[in-house]
Amino acid sequence: MTVAVNDDLWSAIGDPTRRRMLDLLLADGGGTATTLSERLPVTRQAVAKHLAVLDRVGLVNGTPAGRERRYQVDDEQLARAAAQLATVGATWDARLRRIKRIAEAIQRSKEQ
Amino acid sequence: MTVAVNDDLWSAIGDPTRRRMLDLLLADGGGTATTLSERLPVTRQAVAKHLAVLDRVGLVNGTPAGRERRYQVDDEQLARAAAQLATVGATWDARLRRIKRIAEAIQRSKEQ
DNA sequence: GTGATGTGCAACCAAACGTTGCGGAAAGCG
DNA sequence: CGCTTTCCGCAACGTTTGGTTGCACATCAC
After folding, report:
1. What is the pLDDT, as a whole number, of residue B3?
2. Which segments does the entry list as coiled coil (chains A, B) (predicted)?
3. Domains contained in chain A, CATH given
4. What is the sign of the dihedral through the CA atoms of B93, B74, A94 and A108?
């Protein structure tokens, strides 16, 4: 059985640059392509493309404000993403524990 | 501040096909490029490339066995990856809760 | 109005994911 | 033993994705 996750959402947070952007947006309470690019090792245009991806999956919402476009994190959607991460991690942990338990049981039955 | 994670390890589990491969390897206790490709919507060659990636970051180990090459999940490394997922998810959750708390405090001070 | 700043669009490059098409090594069988 | 099957690895190729540069356009400040 496979862990059920939303691939689009996952791949959105799979990129390291996009994760750092989310971190920055959370820390500063919002930002623009220009402000984010000043604190990242990529150009404004690259940031803008990432923002478009995050916007498409609903992790951020952009609102025009004069000549700039301000982006903010969508709390609910990010919480959903965080929950997915926790789920997958917990599932793997559970499977590893189960395998370990079986291995130990086999070991015991051999020793006896 | 940015959440500290191993980008190589993360991007290895960032690909949906690779996550499903890990799931299959965990469920079956191992497998080859051929057996995995039979249960995935990609060709054997694609699976082989993914196995090489997973092998490089230490999430699986491949051992030659006759004419086939058997891969198994490395428990410790997968546990490390699961821990990273949990950490990032928990960090985002904590920040969202903190923001919500602050917003509510502002709301209260306005109402009063 | 003019200059500075912020944005969006297009062209281009490199890496990653996927495919097909081979050739070679190990098992299985007459 | 020899032939066929099966599994593998390598190479060539196409497409998507993350990144760049360059440029045209809108808005703010003076």
Report:
1. 66
2. none
3. 7-111 (1.10.10.10)
4. negative
Q: For residue A50, say whether its CB is under 7 Å from any atom of strand D.
A: yes
Distance in angstroms: CA A45, C1' C10: 12
Instruction: Give residue B66's region: left, alpha or beta (phi > 0; psi -120 to 50).
Output: left
pLDDT tens string A1-18: 666 688 899 999 999 999
Please say whether the beta carbons of B98 and B58 come within 8 A: no
pLDDT for the residue numbered B6: 86
Q: What is the pLDDT of residues A60-103, one digit of tens each?
A: 999 999 999 999 999 999 999 999 999 999 999 999 999 999 99
Beta bridge partners of A76: none
